[in-house]
Amino acid sequence: MTLWLPSSPLLLASKSAIRAKVLSDAGLAVETTPADIDERAVEAELTGDGATPANVAGALAAAKAVNVSLKAPGRLVVGADQTLSLGSERFTKPADREAGRRQLARLSGRTHTLSSGVALAMDGVALWTEVDEARLTMRTLSETFIESYLDAAGEGARTSVGGYQFEGVGANLFERVEGDFFTILGLPLLPLLAALRRAKAVAA
Prior knowledge:
Its cofactor is a divalent metal cation. The protein is α/β, with parallel strands linked by helices. It has seven helices and seven strands, in the order βαβααββαββαβαα. The chain has a single domain, classed as Maf protein (Alpha-Beta Complex), CATH 3.90.950.10. The chain is globular.
């Protein structure tokens, strides 16, 4: 069953399988078309102005949505992005297993913040952007457990900011979370659905 009203599916400017599943499970017709942007360049422009991690997440989400919307005239596009911050320190997706190990060791026993941005665009114009945040406290991890986790997570440890996928084996890393589950997954779903209802794209 779909609650999606337009004749063309919603375009997700990402190759994220979990974000596509979240949208589909919510009753939306969705197609994926990864954005082609230089994320580090967008971040550099913003961080030069003292932008917060939330500002960066929102700007990246909007940039992705706009990028894909330019290639798909008349289509509604959703973009999403996520930043992870530990105080003033920001994390990105680990490049390899060793980088993942270092990130997990740094986050071990501490509380970090996930800032998840989501945006809608059409025909090269950003129509709406919102950012939601969640706080996650990682339990104290032994070196042995970190290695066992990385073995179990495989490539998944390198596809998410911070080196974990909370919806899977990454849940074993945490002792407490504060915030919305969808925000932790990198797609603030409830604000997005409200925006889509206002745009008359989802049944109200």
